[in-house]
Amino acid sequence: MPLKGNLLVGQSGGPTAVINSSLVGVIEEALKHPEIEAIYGCVHGVQGLLREEIVDLRKEKPGTLKRLKTTPSAALGSCRYKLKADDPERLLQVLQAHNIRYLLYIGGNDSAETGHLVGDLAHEKGYELRVMGVPKTVDNDLEYTDHCPGYGSVARFIAAAAMDAGKDSEAIGVVDNVKIIETMGRNAGWITAAAALGKREERDAPHLICLPEVPFEPDRFLSAVQNAYDRLGYCVVSACEGLRDAEGKEVVASKRAIDTDAFGHRQLGGVGDFLCDLIATNLKIKARYDKPGTIQRMSSALASKVDLEEAYLVGKAAVRSAVQGVDGQMVTLVRESADPYRCTTGLAPLEKVAAAEKKLPPDFISPDGTFVTQAFLDYARPLVGGLPKYARLEMHPIEKKLS
Amino acid sequence: MPLKGNLLVGQSGGPTAVINSSLVGVIEEALKHPEIEAIYGCVHGVQGLLREEIVDLRKEKPGTLKRLKTTPSAALGSCRYKLKADDPERLLQVLQAHNIRYLLYIGGNDSAETGHLVGDLAHEKGYELRVMGVPKTVDNDLEYTDHCPGYGSVARFIAAAAMDAGKDSEAIGVVDNVKIIETMGRNAGWITAAAALGKREERDAPHLICLPEVPFEPDRFLSAVQNAYDRLGYCVVSACEGLRDAEGKEVVASKRAIDTDAFGHRQLGGVGDFLCDLIATNLKIKARYDKPGTIQRMSSALASKVDLEEAYLVGKAAVRSAVQGVDGQMVTLVRESADPYRCTTGLAPLEKVAAAEKKLPPDFISPDGTFVTQAFLDYARPLVGGLPKYARLEMHPIEKKLS
Q1: Which of A51, A124, A201, B181 has its C-alpha lying 20 to 30 A from A208's C-alpha?
Q2: A342 near A134, Cβ under 8 Å?
Q3: For residues A130 and A103, is the Cβ–Cβ distance under 8 A?
Q4: Which residues pair with B238 in a beta bridge?
């Protein structure tokens, strides 16, 4: 028997270039099912839900959804909130007060945890609620899914940034010798690795990739930089903000107390400047850094078409599953075929998703730890789509006539 | 009587997304004129020319030029080199040795100075040489031209970055309260100002623009940030890396000796981190920064079509003028009509261009110094082309049912 009632959707965690595409997928699918009455959104994720800040999405203007699909960031507002002991109880009260029977939460593993806790409590109390997770994270660190919506776009941005910054260094390497691109990522190097996706030949950037999966050793780093610089006259490094030393301690992070979040994470950032200092001091060669920061996860100009489309599909699939009776699951992406690339959707329990974190597997990292492998490139290239082919002059020298 | 001989083209200064479009313009126009025999390029600008490092551009493959037009950065290699006393003499020897009669130098005011000195010496020595400057600089700080090729594209990147980072802050403002976008620019705020080009309403970023033309005063800055934050719950600042205090001293610059260039300029960068510290310490609100660095001047995905086309045109116009007998001039862009936007080319003496630097005029800066005016927006918008229109939900709240 169909479960009649209201649907509530929320967005959580770091915004992405495509998380609104998932929101539109949820809304458009919900509109098709008569058992779904009101379509609500909660403002700033569970933080707004705790305060009963709910908006009526059926009242939005018709043209808004179409434009929203390609608008980056989380239109409902996002949050980074760790549930307190009493919170699930309160959340359930709010859901019950508004006869919400379908809870769709778009986010990463913290969001899966939230959904799981609320769903469990509902079962316990005998309130019929179907909770579905919609995957979203630029970090690409969710297990049980081939990849995460949001990753293809940030990967495309970083691939293009490395191509562009590489062209810059190649032209001006006589002046600025080493360039660091500081990329996002706390524990997993997926974004950092994406810098390699536009590389076609040795001169192309990046020449070195520093992943959080590989303990950072200053001496090894410096000799790799020196080596590339000696060979090419310039060197471009993609370095993860979450680099860690052999003891697993972050190499750089904010020392400001204000910069520790609800999950106890210190704000990262500063790896670029740190590495530039290291290079200037030890190698006496000039280095500068680019830190695209939040721009990398948010660029609509560089959003991947595949990513936008898949983000939309997982939103739709989550609603469809919930209507069919599925509960407590996150929609996953399943690669059916590598070439031609084809993905379909699957399901994984929220509880399992919440507890896991997917790092770059060893076979995606080169044996010496300074680059990615062909296996990684094969995995990631279909997710970002085509990249431009830049020209390079052949540079036929003419004969010198002077001494 | 036509001047028969060889043409040499070089690229200088910071690369841009469109400087290769100018190079293609020069080559394609040169190919049309029978009096131009060899078409040469010098590698890394005058630095390569001093070493007689010259390449034959007629030997490049046919398909290369087409792709080169949209390839960012300087394909011949660039330099940042201050001429020494003996250098013009040596440069002239090289030009004479290779029967170069047309010297085309693509660059900013330092390049204009180089062209002017070499041209003067050639006249003095009775060697017939026509020197033409092709304008290029993301900084948009050349006088005598409405704007500079390269600027429209970096402006488009920064406008999009502010739109995207603004959307991010709007969604996650509950967590990351203030965002600084650190933009390029040593003395002129053209790039920093471009952050305003995508702003349509008060909530849109940026909320504050810190220009090098306006002396930086920490107290005034902090109260403007607090004000925006109190109103909106978040705040995005576009801040120039070249910010200066009331005494004209750079607020932040590298302290590393290695980071001082041939012109005595210290490498800039660090304003973002500096402002974040200032905010966290004094306002106790969380701030982070994005520093797109060299990516901003190099993004092919965000290159402006108008900019690409104009860069091509000034390259062609320079060759055409030289063939017609013009010498010692830089091609300029002249705005014939504001709406619809239409530009044609003009000429200005290299000597004058070399000596001048164009800052943001007072009527482009708001009276309180914290934003740009409509006059600036009207000036810059046609140069960057259309920007996306992002959607925003209307957010119709439903009635609360709980306490």
Answers
A1: B181
A2: no
A3: yes
A4: B181, B209
Task: Choose the closest CB to B79 out of A175, A298, A299.
Answer: A175
| Weakly modelled stretches of chain A, pLDDT under 70 | 254-257, 262-263
Low-confidence ranges of chain B (pLDDT < 70): 254-257, 262-263
How far apart CA A71 and CA A22 sit, in angstroms, is 11
pLDDT for B74: 97
Domain ranges of chain A: 5-149+303-355, 156-301+359-383
pLDDT of residue A69: 97
ipTM score: 0.96
Q: Do A301 and B171 touch (CB under 8 A)?
A: no
Cβ-defined contact of B171 to A77 (cutoff 8 Å): yes
Cβ within 8 Å of residue B111, ≥6 positions away: B12, B13, B45, B105, B133, B136
B154-301+359-383: what fold?
A: Rossmann fold (3.40.50)
Residues of B380-396 as b/e, b for ≥16 C-beta within 10 angstroms? bbbbbbebeebbbbebe
Contact A301 B301 (CB under 8 A): yes
**Domain A156-301+359-383 sits in which CATH superfamily?**
Phosphofructokinase domain (3.40.50.460)
> How many whole angstroms separate alpha carbon A295 and alpha carbon B165?
6
Fold (CATH) for B5-149+302-355: Rossmann fold (3.40.50)
> Is any Cβ of chain A less than 8 angstroms from the Cβ of B242?
no
Annotated catalytic residue, options A110, A139, A204, A307: A139
Whether the domain at B5-149+302-355 and the domain at B154-301+359-383 fall into the same CATH topology: yes
CATH assignment of A5-149+303-355? 3.40.50.450
What pLDDT does residue B186 have? 87
Q: Under 8 Å CB-to-CB from B203, ≥6 apart: which residues?
A: B170, B232, B392
The SS3 call for residue A144 is coil
pLDDT tens digits for range B243-294: 999 999 988 876 666 777 766 777 777 899 999 999 999 999 999 999 999 9
HEC secondary structure over A320-375: HHHHHCCCCEEEEEEEEECCCCEEEEEEEEHHHHHHCCCCCCHHHECCCCCCECHH
């949050």: which residue's tokens? A79
Contacts of B258 in chain A (CB under 8 A): 280, 284-286
Q: What is the 3-state secondary structure (H, E, C) of B228-289?
A: HHHHHCCEEEEEECCCECCCCCECCCCCCHHHECCCCCECCCCHHHHHHHHHHHHHCCCEEE
